[in-house]
Amino acid sequence: MANILIVDDEVGIRELLFEILSDEGHDIVLAENAAAARIARNAARPDLVLLDIWMPDTDGITLLKEWSANGQLTMPVVMMSGHGTIDTAVEATRIGAIDYLEKPIGLQKLLAAVKRGLQRPAAPGAPSPLTLAAFTRSVPLRELQRLVQQVAVTSRVLLLRIGAGSLAELAARSFQAKGAPWLDLSTVSPPLDVNQLQACQGGVLFVPELSRLARTQQKNLAFALERLERYDLRLVVATDHTLDALVREGWEESLVARLFEVSLAPPSIADVRDDLPELASQLLLHLVEAGEVPRRQFSTGALNTLRAQPWSGGYNELRAAVKSLALGTLEEEIGIADVRRLLIPSTEGHVGVSLDQPLREAREAFERLYFEHHLRLEGSNMTRLAEKSGLERTHLYRKLKQLGLQAGRRSEEN
Description:
By secondary structure, the chain is of the alpha/beta class. Helices cover about 45% and strands about 10% of the residues. InterPro entries: CheY-like_superfamily, Homeodomain-like_sf, P-loop_NTPase, Sig_transdc_resp-reg_receiver, Sigma_54_int.
């Protein structure tokens, strides 16, 4: 039979539902609040969740939003409430709940809802990308999400003023409707055409750093900007440059002025350092749910070690590090030693770049350090690495092979 998670802060209701559904032959896991529900959902991987709306720590609607945002809403959820309204039921259904039960819950209604839920096919495909909605316990990220949503109501274009440790992609993903297409314009070098825009209809076009765009890519951006409404597109661009600085670099002033009409300054990872354990944990959960890494979890010590790192490369560097840590350990728990081995390599026995070496050897040592750093920083995205290093792609692959480094060949538009 099925594995069912029951989440309710009232012990009497938990016990009643436990007895009824156990008698039906189901395996039951109980959680008294949202914190316990998160742990139980990750450990038990339930086939169905019965989720109370009104709970003392985090309400059920917020928890449902969190699961939806971080790709964990892979099981049917039936909401329960003794104080529900039609609006609440509609919102829960919009987020992803399959049913809504009013308390006191009748036996036949309960069994019918459970039966319908268990008959639903599993959600196909990989989970949606992470958005700000996944981080319900971070005040700065919740505020950023509200700001992004506020802008989305009235504008199709958003500029993010960023610095080191940028969370630009996470903010941009929150400008995107669930399941909508996504295209990173910095990965498109040939001239953009209407067929590509039509394929992205209803989605988001993204530029992680305006100053890195080549002249042809600037023309692509201008081409897309003129057609946002026609193809129901949104555009999110990020930069650490001012308007005047971009113009001095040769950008068309009218284009830059349009991009700077609506802008936000999202916090950096340094600004939300206390929330970094949640960021890392949610990233790991998302990678597990997507099937990209084995089932892993961080120890408290590992999370504290991650929090102490600078993360100048921002969200992309953190995501790449989390994935590397999950793939680089055979144990289910990622510990302090794993983090230190990846992020704080020992210098003992390491030659480094010595000025006493022959020029050829010193140059090779420096190149290896340079590309190791930027591979991690860009999450092995070869398009971005080619742009940053100024090397043509074929030359870049050849160089990495000579240095004994692994070149990434994954899809670079996602």
